[in-house]
Amino acid sequence: MKRRVYVETTIVSYLASRPSRDVIVAGRQQVTHRWWEVRRPSFDVVISQVVLDEISAGDPEAARRRLEVIAGLPLLDVTPEAAELAVRLIERVPLPSQASVDATHVAVAACHHVDFVMTWNVAHIANAVLRRRVEAVCRTVGFDAPILCTPDELMEDA
User: Where exactly are the structural domains of the chain?
Assistant: First the structure.
């Protein structure tokens, strides 16, 4: 059975956006495209309605490109348990209130027993300083936290 990866909005955005002139962004785009082409077949990739809502916003042409990237991916429900876990993550990690969508990504993945959340959001999701707190909050409600990582961390099998 393949391991599952929840693809957070930043991944979809890097895949669908035009090449950046910013060196860091361009590097992240390149790594993201490489993961999508080379490693994606090794995983079952999933998203949630939260991802759909985020990528549908903004410039219509950019939104169309983002939606094309994720067409056909399985959609995980934002269950009442996930909504409650997201609130607890905001309160207990703690995360700033504007990070409620970020907390929801993690909570949906945890409640659906997804192995990884892949993101370029290193402020509120793939953050080594917050990782243990996120794991502890998930455990208090009976879920294992997914591994929070960037595409480059999933380039090779362990």
Answer: 3-154
